[in-house]
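Support request from a user on the community tier.

User writes: "When I paste my structure tokens into the form, the page sometimes reloads and wipes my input. The last time it worked, I copied everything first. Here is what I submitted, just in case something in the input itself triggers the reload:"
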């Protein structure tokens, strides 16, 4: 079994470069079984599984320059503008990963990052953002120790990304990634994400995700606060058991192609996530009236057409519309005719399942 110790950097084969830079493009992901609840150090209370996305991504360049002092110093530019408000999260990330990548203390950094989706869209960028930084740091490790295998490279990248943001562990690989130990998922671990290890039925190949932007504002509740709410939650244990059970069920469904069961599991997961927030102390309602209008329209449309379109939600008001490749044109029409009226400024993003991070 792989443990945290296996990820401690212990070998320099090449000399430290004076300066350099690496660039990675990393996808966002959408969870089908949700991660909601964690313990130190950023370990999940239940396993989760997500589709890796394609069109929603972060592109990050990490520039590094050798220095003599021992403090980690960095600047962050987001979409060309200096963003000091992003510093605390990255500082925390650096301090958490330092024991595994001690060479980062030898450098000053400039981080330049941008997203393919609008920052204000309500789409979380912490997953793709932390995954990109983790991969840039792994590229530095690879430069210092070229003998590491690709398998170790990506596993450790996911491990580091997880320490920045839990869901970031699922933004390295494609197309379906599981994070969190589960007896039915070979190789799964609480420490990093793994590609779903079984053969995926053709019904789930090239799946689409249209993100309906119901509320483009900043999130009302940060995910860290949200996860904390599970600590004294009256339904926490049952919820964690349910998620484990849903992973087992979804694993079979992904292999046997049963689209109707997929819908039931995925929609129930989305509503349960929100039910957890509505029943915690303090409580939150993150859905907006238009979120519910869209959900009702989807149910109506399914009843009328026998379509396999379904929805999932993040910790916010936006709706992700998931559907198979063969329904592409009919669902697009449905969105334009019946759903965009509920989107802020008629905004929505067409995305699909993607294959994971790429170096630039
Ligand atoms: C609702 O990964 O953003 O999107 O680990 O605190 O950074 P931190 O939380 P984060 O939580 C994501 C929660 C979710 C569900 C999911 O993606 O599984």
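"...and here is what came back when it finally went through:"
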């Amino acid at each position: 079994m792989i443990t945290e110790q296996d990820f401690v950097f212990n070998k320099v084969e090449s000399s430290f470069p004076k300066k350099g830079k690496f660039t990675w493009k990393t996808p966002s992901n959408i969870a089908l079984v949700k991660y909601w609840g964690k313990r130190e150090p950023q370990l999940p209370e239940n396993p989760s599984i997500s589709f890796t996305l394609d069109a929603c991504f972060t592109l990050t360049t990490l520039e590094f320059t050798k220095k003599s002092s021992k403090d980690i110093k960095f600047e962050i530019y987001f979409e060309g503008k200096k963003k000091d408000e992003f510093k605390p999260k990255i500082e925390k990330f650096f301090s958490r990963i330092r024991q595994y990548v001690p060479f980062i203390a030898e450098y000053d950094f400039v981080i330049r990052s941008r997203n393919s989706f609008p920052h204000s869209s309500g789409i979380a960028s912490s997953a793709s953002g932390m995954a990109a930084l983790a991969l840039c740091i792994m590229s530095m490790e690879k430069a210092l120790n070229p003998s590491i295998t690709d398998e170790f490279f990506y596993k450790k990248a996911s491990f580091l990304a997880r320490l920045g943001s839990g869901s970031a562990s699922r933004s390295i690989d494609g197309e379906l990634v599981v994070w969190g130990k589960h007896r039915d998922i070979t190789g799964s671990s609480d420490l990093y994400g793994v590609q779903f290890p079984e053969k995926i039925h053709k019904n789930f190949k090239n799946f689409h995700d249209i993100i309906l932007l119901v509320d483009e504002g900043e999130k009302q509740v940060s995910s860290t606060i949200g996860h904390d709410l599970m600590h004294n939650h009256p339904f926490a244990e049952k919820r964690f058991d349910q998620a484990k059970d849903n992973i087992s069920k979804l694993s079979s469904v992904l292999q046997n192609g049963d689209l109707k069961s997929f819908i039931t599991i995925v929609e129930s997961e989305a509503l349960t996530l929100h039910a957890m927030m509505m029943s915690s102390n303090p409580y939150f309602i993150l859905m907006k009236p238009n979120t519910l209008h869209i959900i009702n329209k989807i149910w109506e449309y399914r009843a009328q057409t026998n379509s396999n379109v379904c929805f999932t939600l993040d910790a916010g008001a936006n709706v992700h519309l998931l559907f198979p490749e063969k329904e592409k044109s009919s669902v697009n029409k449905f969105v334009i005719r019946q759903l965009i009226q509920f989107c802020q400024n008629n905004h929505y993003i067409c995305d699909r399942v993607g294959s994971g991070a790429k170096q630039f």
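Agent notes: The reload is a front-end session timeout and is unrelated to the input. The chain has a mean pLDDT of 94. The chain is about 35% helix and 25% strand. Escalated to web team.
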